[in-house]
Amino acid sequence: MILVTGGAGYIGSHTNKALHNAGYDTVVVDNLCKGYETFAKWGNFEDYDFGSKDLREVFEKYDIDGVLHFAAFSSVAESVELPQKYFKNNYKNTLNLLQIMREFGVDKFILSSTAAVYGNPEKVPITEDQELKPINPYGHSKWITEKALEREAQKGDFNYVSLRYFNAAGCDFDCEIGELHDPETHLIPLVLDAAIGKRDSISIFGTDYNTPDGTCIRDYIHVNDLASAHIAAYEYLCEKNESNIFNLGNGQGYSVREIIDMCKKVTGRDFKVDIADRREGDPDILIADASKIEKELGWKPKYDLECIVSSAWKWHQKVNDI
Ligand code: UDP
């Protein structure tokens, strides 16, 4: 049985569905502070906080072999405003989970990490061995969590894979689950809000970055690609007695303006675009070198930007009832 923390959230629910389709038994643990119970319909569901001592009850009830840990806060902007909230939930509460895993002899762990651990990288595409210099509390909270896992693995009888996601986007092709944050802060769903008429315009946060068109460049990866990478990483942990760290991205960068153009193309709608100030904590360019996971696990992403935006648009139309 695999324990999926945060399995009622965006990336966790897509991975839980993929695990189920691949024949794995799962138990989702989610306190529903961000997730939706309807997103956790595959396998078992338990309403617990992963930072709570009561989480032991889940380990008593189910025979857990490994943990996929998605539950976390993930807004860069909010982390700048409320750093303690991020360090407490993303770091301290993960230590609680690790302690309970140790007590029950559960030795396989996959962390949802992030490209935000790199900060403003020295070179792009970014390889996993680049120095980690996070420039916002969100990235920092994941960086110290990776360090805690590294130390835990050094003690023995425990292995982990840290998956550093670049920009997760897109939705389930069956439209059963999708991206539904409240409040929404991510670029693609916000642009689609403008396309569908839920907001008057989309604001570009800064046009004076060190990029060809002045707007930030990111590497967008389909959430189903992230899901299949988790399964590959879990199988690796089952086969090999070692830990590892991998980037998960497409290796292709798109600027904010290019994302807006792709959304206009896919939706066939036009909308107003305005220029706003920079958002604090945003690096200029984040593009993955994802060749390590391809070389070591044989995994590579399948879906391109147009497919990402099309799947997100289909979901967006469904949830907005149009
Ligand atoms: N962004 C923007 N307008 C918005 C939301 C986001 O210009 O309304 C920019 C943001 O500053 C960043 C990029 O879009 O450069 C991607 O932001 P998002 O929040 O989707 O992901 P992040 O890279 O922060 O994880």
UniProtKB/TrEMBL annotation:
Gene3D superfamilies per UniProt: NAD(P)-binding Rossmann-like Domain, UDP-galactose 4-epimerase, domain 1
Gene Ontology molecular-function annotations: UDP-glucose 4-epimerase activity
Entry keyword Isomerase: yes
Residues that span the membrane, as ranges: none
Highest taxon, organism lineage: Archaea
Cofactor dependency: NAD(+)
The keyword Iron-sulfur is assigned to this record: no
UniProt record, GO biological process: galactose catabolic process via UDP-galactose, Leloir pathway
Keyword annotations: Carbohydrate metabolism, Isomerase, NAD
Domain NAD(P)-binding: start-end pairs: 3-310
Pfam families named among the record's database cross-references: GDP_Man_Dehyd
InterPro entries recorded: NAD(P)-bd_dom, NAD(P)-bd_dom_sf, UDP_G4E
Family that this chain belongs to: Belongs to the NAD(P)-dependent epimerase/dehydratase family.
Identification of the protein by name: UDP-glucose 4-epimerase GalE
Source organism per UniProt: Methanobrevibacter millerae
Originating gene: galE
